[in-house]
Design goal:
single chain, 6 helices, mainly alpha
Length: 206
Amino acid sequence: MSTKVKRFLRLVTIILPPVALGITGLFHPHQLTVETAKQWTLVHVVLLPLFPLLGLSYHLILARYRGLPIYFAKICIYIYIIFYTALDTIAGIANGVVISRLASMPDTQTRAELIRNLRQSLYISGNYLGNIGVYALIGIAFFTYISFFKKKLSFYHIFALVSLVTGTALFAYYHLYAPWGVVAMFILAISLASLEIIDNKIMDKK
């Protein structure tokens, strides 16, 4: 297999997770209700393998770098994968399944209160774990940026790093809710692709 083909496949592997997440985010309901419960559940089932794969994208980019900040960034990737997947499982899939089942009950005040209480409980549990994943996401961007802080960078490196921080921050705050959560994923795809292409060009000059 030629170097060009290997690089192309590696680039596709890096950008595919954030692009897939962005597209899936277009179908993510803004609220979980009896009417949206099935779609909510389906979307989060699709997201279940995609969130960890975003961690792989970060890892493939950072694998070429060395230093203490990069080491901490890789630890943050591991933490993100565990706890953000927990968020998706509890507040996403479990919550959607529970609300879908309750939809078969008669539409009464009791059902409404039960839905509200169960939904809130699962949100709280999921978000508690998910917030750890969010902090880990911020840590990935922070430590990656710090690793380049004292280096002489090109305009393209600065663009890629600023995009990485921006995309990560938007994702951490907006999850995948359209429009900004979706925008975040495409910004991340651009920033990760930019870092990969820049690294390839640097390697070609050596």
